[in-house]
Design brief:
The complex is a heterodimer of chains A (113) and B (114). Chain A has 113 residues and is mainly β. Chain A contains no helices and eleven strands. In chain A, the strands form two sheets. In chain A, strands 2, 4, 5, 9, 10 and 11 form a six-stranded mixed sheet that branches. Chain A is globular. Classes of the chains: A mainly beta (113), B mainly beta (114). At the A-B interface, β5, β9 and β10 of A face β5, β6 and β10 of B.
Chain lengths: 113, 114
């Protein structure tokens, strides 16, 4: 089994920077994903990390430290449309031998003008 | 490429009835996943197919739930004798495999059991 922990809710101001943390405990780690989910919609892929370090993609960056079981998603130049839930998902080995992403409960980000 | 589609988008049923949901993955994707999501929670894994083979099934999944992917393309998820606790959004995702294996999610089927 595994345990994924991320804050329930965060607030930030338009134009600012926000960091959403995710910690996990797992065995057979095989990658960490961040997804964005707007209310009532399906999750959409943001980033993927499998090696330690920072992955940058436009306004979004994601960091991974496998030894610490820690990741963060960094959102720069926040826009109102960034208000959404951000899901951390860890892919690890299941009992049947397959690697399956397991999701945290998500962090609800509210961006204020 | 029209993305992952799910039908129906909404389903209201009475407790004790059976329901079936359908998922059509992205055509070249050989891997298909079913998740369940309730308000304020992340998606909870239910089951996984590679082609037509069901390779993983959550230990938390009741035996009232069954899923099939008969030809390795579309999949169905059936819930028998529904209970109010089954009310949730049922999400389907597909992926191609490979190193990163990004999942692409469908819009979901929202189930309400009265």
């Amino acid at each position: 089994g595994q345990n994924i922990d991320q804050p329930t809710e965060m607030t930030a101001t338009e134009g600012a920077i926000v960091q959403i943390n995710c910690t996990y405990q797992t065995s057979g780690f095989n990658g960490l994903f961040w997804y964005q989910q707007h209310a009532g919609e399906a999750p959409t892929f943001l980033s993927y990390n499998v090696l330690d370090g920072l992955e940058e993609k436009g306004r979004f960056s994601s960091f991974l430290s496998r030894s610490k079981g820690y990741s963060y998603l960094l959102l720069k130049e926040l826009q109102m449309k960034d208000s959404a839930s951000y899901l951390c998902a860890v892919r690890d080995l299941q009992s049947g031998g397959s690697y399956i992403p397991t999701f945290g409960r998500g962090t609800s980000l509210i961006v204020h003008p | 490429d029209t993305g992952v589609s799910q039908n129906p988008r909404h389903k209201i049923t009475k407790r004790g009835q059976n329901v079936t949901f359908r998922c059509d993955p992205i055509s070249e994707h050989n891997r298909l996943y079913w998740y369940r999501q309730t308000l304020g929670q992340g998606p909870e894994f239910l089951t996984y197919f590679q082609n037509e083979a069901q390779l993983e099934k959550s230990r938390l999944l009741s035996d009232r739930f069954s899923a099939e992917r008969p030809k390795g393309s579309f999949s169905t998820l059936e819930i028998q004798r529904t209970e109010q606790g089954d009310s949730a959004m049922y999400l389907c995702a597909s992926s191609f495999g490979g190193r990163q294996e990004t999942q692409y999610f469908g819009p979901g089927t929202r189930l309400l059991v009265l």
